[in-house]
């Protein structure tokens, strides 16, 4: 059975049973408590909480959808036979309409009669704590059990399954058969899951049927730790989710989801070879996810959904790079993704996907090679060295883990993420420590100050000088080079190579760029590396200066790779550009033939946190 047939059958089956077909919502949800849409129920959250009325909005208490979904939580599993980051979730929903009896019967009929599949077994909730204080009355009404979060065993669902002839009903706990909430709070409840066999004879979970009975006041983690409360929901309901790819794997009797027709098109077009089977699957998964994220307006960045996209792009690209861009080419895979899915999702734009991908690729290639070389140098890649590789060269965690092989055996994702968060704190506190209480007069060759306030202004103007050099290159071209610089607490004076007087328009543009970078509040970071590597990173340096073998590179941006400006430098600098305030170019003049001089002053007070 083709996947297009599965789509059609699913929607029709539920439409015939009073469900209104609702189109997929965007992968970027309205709900600020989650980054991306992880389930079909997300767009319907307000109908369970009573904030919205389904009868009014849909003319029915039941809906059905095929929802674009994305789960970062499964990223480490991608590469096996059944996990994906992006997937399509088929689901039927009821808001205060039908409950357990109908939901289970619909699912049973759809799987066995419409799809012609055998159910291997199902699971039901065993109660929590696992020896329930309030054994179920069999009515499915668990409201009285919500205090202290005691939830009774779901004997009602067990009974329904048995009456339908399903004999293998397994009882499981909170980890597996209690769903939600999504984000920081929301509807949740016990579930029952359906398992069917794939082409390799493995039992695969295909359908999760949630009995939304509670509103959880905290996140899932808080709930499991006993720190969130369950309250009865105003509108009890049904929320089901069935992965289209998994169902297709069972229906088409394939061993993995990657052999179903949902991926088949890409493989026929452009076989991805020269890599392991696992890597091939990762690339297929990521290519599809990248295409859908971009088409829902996500752009690569170092925050939120943009950061997820960036990681996927970089990971996919690293593999492409490692096989020398000969064996497979991602743009061809993107074109095939587009051809396969545009029929269902007209928002997919081939041009946009390719443009964003190519832009990101260009930026990343510059430092990838160097990062991979650095990675090889570590005998053991611990969390600090992994973070160094990420911060300096933009190598994502997943790639470090994978390419580091044995050397990354002790590296754990949660430690890496903790390091990431801690780092944000440290860079804020960084300069404070550096100058705390002593030696206010600095003479780094570039910067002089007499007291704390002067030091702060000189530091602001020092970072301004870096921004200025890059802005001059942006406006006048890369032939601009530093010929000299002098920073005091009053002004920065920067000499650079350029043949003629600047027009007032050029001066205005340079000033505007510098102030824009200040407003963007970019972090300023520093890495130490060999002179040769620093040169290759593209960091600017002053030709008159003699540098030691090991140099520091200061960069303005989230990572060395993304940096707007990078220069060989001894510091000090502000922690974030907003601390500069605002600047003005006060003078532009000639100092020698082919050398111009610019002075820049501070024009607005800003809080100095560094
Ligand atoms: N919300 C549940 C899930 O995502 C069922 O749709 O599995």
Describe the protein's architecture and organization.
The protein has 19 helices and 16 strands. The chain is an alpha+beta fold and 610 residues long. The protein has 3 domains: 3-259, 2-Layer Sandwich (BirA Bifunctional Protein, domain 2), CATH 3.30.930.10; 277-425, no CATH class; 434-601, Threonyl-trna Synthetase, Chain A, domain 2 (Threonyl-tRNA Synthetase, Chain A, domain 2, 2-Layer Sandwich), CATH 3.30.980. Strand 10 and strand 11 form a beta hairpin. Helix 11 crosses helix 13. Bound molecules: serine (SER).
Strand content: 15-25%
Reported for the largest beta sheet, the result is: 9 strands, mixed
Report how far apart the termini are. 62 Å
Instruction: Using the 3D structure, state the CATH architecture of the largest domain.
Output: 2-Layer Sandwich
Structural class: alpha+beta
